[in-house]
């Protein structure tokens, strides 16, 4: 019997597979039975920008993919996808982290902050974002979210860095437009706005 794959059948299949994965984890929890070796829970809870979110995650899924494609936080950019360019930089417990290089499953106990979480409740930009605007730091803007998160991480650890300390802290972020000095000017301006 040849059944044509329709949109409706596809969606039903996706829903069924998600329900099966979730119910398997729930079954092991409810029965108290030991999970098989290599079992990875699919439905995980992660703290992102102050909200605990439940998300269905593949065993080898990176945090960058989860943030962008499952939580809609597209400020986290995918550049090299191997921890070299810094476009996916987020803060995990206030430490700068390449989101493309960590698995979402490993973040269950971490406090994740993305560029979307920096804006204040009344809509004001974070001082780093404001400083980058004032200094005209970005050009194309693709690397900007990662640059912002690296600068925020630096200024939380060291509110008054020298320009050389800032250069070192920002060195993990590649800017294909070559606006490195403009970003450094933004970091130094941010120290004035914060202090």
Describe this structure in words.
- With 195 residues, the chain is of the alpha+beta class.
- The chain is 40% helix and 12% strand.
- It has six helices and five strands, in the order H-E-E-H-E-E-E-H-H-H-H.
- A five-stranded mixed β-sheet has the order 2-1-5-3-4, sandwiched between helices.
- The protein is elongated, with a radius of gyration of 20 Å.
- The mean pLDDT is 88.
Which SSEs are present, and which pair or pack?
Elements: H1 7-31, E1 43-48, E2 51-56, H2 63-70, E3 89-92, E4 95-98, E5 111-113, H3 127-134, H4 144-157, H5 163-170, H6 180-194
Parallel strand pairs: 1-5
Antiparallel strand pairs: 1-2, 3-4, 3-5
Helix pairs in contact: 3-6, 5-6
Give a brief description:
This protein has 195 residues and is of the alpha+beta class. It is built from six helices and five strands.
């Amino acid at each position: 019997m040849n059944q044509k794959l329709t949109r409706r059948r596809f969606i039903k299949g996706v829903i069924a597979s998600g329900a099966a994965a979730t119910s398997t984890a729930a079954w092991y929890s409810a029965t108290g039975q030991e999970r098989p070796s290599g079992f990875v829970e699919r439905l995980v809870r992660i703290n992102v920008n102050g909200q605990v979110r439940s998300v269905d995650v593949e065993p080898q899924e990176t945090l960058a993919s989860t943030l962008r494609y499952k939580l809609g936080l597209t400020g986290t950019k995918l550049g090299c996808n191997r921890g070299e360019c810094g476009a996916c930089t987020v803060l995990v417990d206030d430490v700068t982290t390449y989101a493309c290089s960590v698995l979402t499953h490993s973040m269950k106990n971490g406090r994740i902050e993305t560029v979307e979480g920096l804006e204040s409740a009344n809509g004001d930009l974070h001082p780093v974002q404001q400083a980058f605007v004032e200094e005209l730091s970005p050009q194309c803007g693709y690397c900007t979210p990662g640059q912002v998160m690296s600068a925020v991480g630096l200024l939380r650890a060291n509110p008054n860095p020298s320009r050389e300390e800032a250069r070192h802290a920002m060195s993990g972020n590649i800017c294909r437009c070559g606006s490195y000095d403009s970003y450094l000017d933004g970091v130094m301006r941010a120290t004035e706005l914060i202090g």
